[in-house]
Design a protein that fits this description.
Elements: H1 16-44, H2 50-90
Length: 92
């Protein structure tokens, strides 16, 4: 409840700290995916490998960042639902 006695409006927007943590996790996953893509191509390629290395970095980074973004959205929604359930139980 707000200090004036009125209940706070419901919001589906996660806390700023949770959004920042999700963004950082997506960036870290993209970096890790890029490194994995680079390593996989580097192991398999001989000679001039500039273009394949770049493609490996790009595909690895995009794929892992996309996967982590799905996980982050699901976690943020779960936390929001959990908070809503806790508030409902506390109001009883």
């Amino acid at each position: 409840m707000a200090s004036s006695g009125r209940p706070l409006p419901l919001s589906a927007l996660p806390a700023p700290a949770a959004r920042a943590a999700a963004f950082a996790a997506i960036l870290i996953a993209g970096l890790a995916g890029g490194l994995i893509g680079y390593s996989l191509v580097r192991i398999q390629c001989d000679g001039d490998c500039g273009l394949p290395l770049g493609i490996g970095i790009l595909v690895g980074a995009v794929a892992s960042a996309a996967g982590m973004s799905v996980v982050a959205v699901l976690v943020l929604r779960a936390v929001g639902e959990w908070r809503e359930i806790q508030e409902r139980e506390d109001s009883r």
